[in-house]
């Protein structure tokens, strides 16, 4: 109404600043994390994950809007009467765990027309899709890929490795570090990047048909002696754990505090084959 009591009209903006409290034309005011729906919805509850579809822009008058899909979680649900300009009615107000403003390429997309925001309820657990590996252009390098769980890959760090194949020669190397993209993979296997202290020919490490076998469960021998080749165990592959008795006794190993828990030397031994010769610890 003007000062003469005549009805007047004014334009109502539906563009909202996403990182700030919205007052008029919203009644009551809406916090930055509060999102009102255009009606009452009884099926949504706190803790529900949402995919929010919105056209975001840098400014309130920006014409270059960018379609984005954001993931948020509902922290609180309220049902109340709201007004936006001349429109009023019952609404379900969602309080999100984070507002919808995002930073992208050095600019902040902090405005959106509320009429173009859609909320999609997610009923399943999230999953991640990744592109397949692309062969590198390098022919040699110090980085190889390990396929396994995160815990298995982490155990390779600073470990001595022995590479066998494609020829008869054995090559020793040390895994300097292991990089994994997943912090917690739930025990599911995946590819992990292993940095080594020496270079290898990448043509021998094809993912589908590798030509090299890598041994990581090695023991450094403090003493060695050439012995005839023998077969250990009884060949029963059904046994989960087997104890292999070495034919020559007594053998002993010295426990080292930085390698395993301390204790008294035990009357047992370990053996490995190096360049076709059997070595034992002592």
Query: Over all CA atoms, what is the radius of gyration?
Result: 33 Å
Which structural class best describes the helix and strand composition?
A: mainly beta
Secondary-structure element pattern, one letter each: EEEEEEEEEEEHEEEEEE
Major sheet characteristics: 8 strands, antiparallel
In total, how many domains does the architecture comprise?
3
Which geometry do the CA atoms define? elongated
Rounded to the nearest angstrom, the distance between the terminal CA atoms is: 100 Å
Counting H and I runs of at least 4 residues, what is the number of helices? 1
- Helical proportion? under 10%
Mean pLDDT: 80
Number of strands: 17
Low-pLDDT stretches are 257-282
Strand content: 35-45%
Compact summary:
With 282 residues, this protein is mostly beta strands.
List the SSEs and their pairings:
Layout: E1 15-17, E2 26-27, E3 34-36, E4 49-57, E5 66-84, E6 87-96, E7 102-104, E8 107-109, E9 111-113, E10 118-122, E11 140-148, H1 150-154, E12 160-164, E13 170-179, E14 190-201, E15 213-215, E16 271-274, E17 277-280
Antiparallel strand pairs: 1-9, 2-5, 3-6, 4-5, 4-9, 4-10, 5-6, 7-8, 11-14, 12-13, 12-15, 13-14, 16-17
């Amino acid at each position: 109404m003007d000062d003469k009591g005549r009805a007047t009209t004014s334009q109502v903006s539906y563009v909202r600043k996403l990182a700030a409290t919205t007052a008029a034309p919203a009644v009551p005011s809406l916090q930055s994390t509060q999102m009102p729906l255009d009606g009452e919805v009884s099926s949504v509850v706190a803790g529900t994950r949402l995919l929010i579809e919105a056209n975001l822009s840098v400014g309130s008058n920006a014409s270059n809007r960018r379609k984005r899909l954001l993931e948020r979680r509902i922290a609180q649900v309220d049902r109340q009467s709201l007004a936006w300009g001349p429109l009023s009615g019952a609404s379900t107000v969602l309080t999100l765990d984070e507002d919808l403003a995002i930073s992208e390429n050095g600019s902040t997309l902090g405005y959106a027309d509320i009429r173009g925001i859609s909320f999609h309820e997610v009923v399943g657990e999230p999953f991640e899709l990744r592109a397949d590996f692309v062969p590198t252009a390098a022919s040699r390098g110090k980085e190889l890929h390990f396929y396994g769980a995160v815990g298995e890959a982490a155990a390779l760090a600073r470990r001595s490795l022995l590479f066998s194949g494609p020829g008869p020669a054995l090559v020793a190397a040390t895994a300097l570090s292991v990089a994994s993209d997943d912090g917690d993979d739930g025990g599911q296997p995946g590819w992990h990047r292993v940095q080594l202290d020496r270079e290898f020919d990448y043509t021998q490490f094809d993912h589908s048909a590798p030509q090299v076998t890598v041994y990581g469960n090695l023991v450094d021998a403090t003493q060695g002696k050439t012995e005839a080749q023998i077969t250990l165990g009884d060949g029963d592959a059904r046994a989960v754990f087997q104890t292999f008795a070495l034919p020559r006794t007594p053998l002993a190993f010295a426990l080292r505090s930085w390698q395993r828990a301390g204790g008294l030397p035990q009357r047992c031994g370990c053996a490995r084959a190096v360049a076709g010769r059997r070595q034992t610890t002592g």
